[in-house]
Design a protein that fits this description.
The chain has two domains: about 140 residues, Sandwich (Jelly Rolls); about 80 residues, Orthogonal Bundle (Arc Repressor Mutant, subunit A), CATH 1.10.10. Helix 1 crosses helix 2 and helix 6 packs across helix 7. Strand 11 and strand 12 form a beta hairpin. It is elongated. The longest helix is centred in the middle third of the chain and has 26 residues. The protein has nine helices and twelve strands. A four-stranded antiparallel beta sheet has the order 1-8-3-6. Strands 2-7-4-5 form a four-stranded antiparallel beta sheet. Strands 9-10-12-11 form a four-stranded antiparallel beta sheet. The N and C termini lie far apart (about 60 Å). It is of the alpha+beta class.
């Protein structure tokens, strides 16, 4: 990828969108293009945080090690999303691993280039808001996984996907259909449990699906989540 192409991609990322031409030029010059094959591991949990990545093609998964060989899916990374930047804030090691779900292409931004941007007060302010949003997403996921029945966890997971990538259609929201194993990793359930939970939600008229798309019925799903995830008052 040429420096000009990297610059255009970086400018399309929300965190970098208001950088000056000079800052974008410097960032693009220091960055490198990286290709990772399907199932390739971009970085591992506990590895040094020496760079961050912007995905330009493909899809990748942020995963956390579980019991035995299991992994919990924390986030799905899609083009124009940045990943790995949190480890650059304090020089800590990676808190999770990044795995390519398919052939992926990234722009790799070295730590010194990212640190240089933080001298810009405007960028630092945007970075703080970006980190706060990430923490809210993580807290939301932990609440969903820790609270309620398996069916409630799956319902919560679907509603979170709707917020992130849904398309409104009438009284419902369309999201890409995900494999039951992927939903299992996001909710801390087994694949079989997810299959049963989806069956229940379908019977309750909360969800329906085709080969590629899942439709969430807004009112029935909201009603179900309110009743299942409500925290009792003392």
């Amino acid at each position: 990828m040429t420096t000009a192409a990297k610059k255009e991609w970086l400018k399309s990322v929300a965190l970098f969108s208001t950088l000056s031409d000079g800052e974008l030029d410097a960032l693009a010059t220091s960055a490198a293009s990286v290709t990772v094959q399907k199932h390739g591991r971009v970085f591992e949990e506990g590895a040094p945080g020496d760079c961050c990545y912007v995905l330009t093609a493909g899809e990748a998964r942020v995963v956390l090690s579980g019991d035995g060989d299991s992994e919990m899916l924390l986030a799905t990374i899609r083009p124009r999303m940045i990943v790995g930047e949190l480890a650059l804030l304090d020089g800590s090691t990676r808190s999770a691993a990044l795995v390519a779900s398919e052939l992926c292409r990234f722009i790799r931004i070295p730590a010194p280039a990212f640190t240089q941007l933080r001298k810009n007060a405007g960028f630092e302010e945007r970075l703080v808001k970006h980190v706060a949003a990430r923490l809210r997403e993580t807290n939301d996921q932990m609440r969903g996984v820790a609270t309620g029945s398996a069916i409630a966890r799956v319902a919560w997971c679907l509603s979170r996907m709707a917020r992130q990538e849904g398309t409104l259609q009438g009284g419902g929201i369309l999201i890409p259909k995900r494999a039951h194993q992927e939903l299992a990793e996001m909710t801390g359930c087994s694949r079989e449990t997810v299959t049963r939970a989806l069956g229940v939600l379908k019977r309750k008229k909360c969800v329906s699906w085709t080969a590629k798309v899942m439709r969430l019925e807004i009112e029935p799903l909201q009603r179900y989540l309110r009743t299942q995830l409500e925290v009792p008052r003392a």
